């Protein structure tokens, strides 16, 4: 990745849900912030690893957030 490549930042985080059918966390203070990654491929790899570690808990969920869409909602490269 060169300095000229766009930074398509992605956040991976998760936690225990109140109900597996809804994205409402049981305790926000206990969210697991896995990290911020420079592209989707690395974020997905981290997400899969965390999801696999918690596969036995149906209430645990991990998510990938496309931070670059929040930073540049118009997608024109200008902030």
Describe this structure in words.
Strands 2-1-3 form a three-stranded antiparallel sheet. 24% of the residues lie in helices and 25% in strands. It has a single domain (10-71), classed as Alpha-Beta Plaits. By secondary structure, it is of the alpha+beta class. This is Inositol monophosphatase.
Chain-wise SSE layout:
Elements: E1 10-16, E2 32-37, H1 40-53, E3 60-66, H2 67-71
Antiparallel strand pairs: 1-2, 1-3
Which terms would index this structure?
single chain, 79 residues, alpha+beta, Alpha-Beta Plaits, 3-stranded antiparallel sheet, 2 helices, 25% strand, DUF4170, Inositol monophosphatase
| SS element count, helices | 2
- So, CATH architecture? 2-Layer Sandwich
- In total, the number of strands is 3
Tell me the span between the first and last alpha carbons.
21 Å
The major sheet is characterized as: 3 strands, antiparallel
Provide the CATH top-level class. Alpha Beta
Percent strand equals 25-35%
Strand ordering within the main sheet: 2-1-3
H/E series = EEHEH
CA-based gyration radius:
14 Å
- Fraction in helix: 10-25%
Q: Spans with pLDDT under 50 lasting ≥5 residues? A: none
When the domains are counted, the total is: 1
Please tell me what the overall shape is: elongated
Mean pLDDT: 89
Helix-and-strand structural type: alpha+beta
Protein name: Inositol monophosphatase
Organism: Aquisalinus flavus
InterPro entries: DUF4170
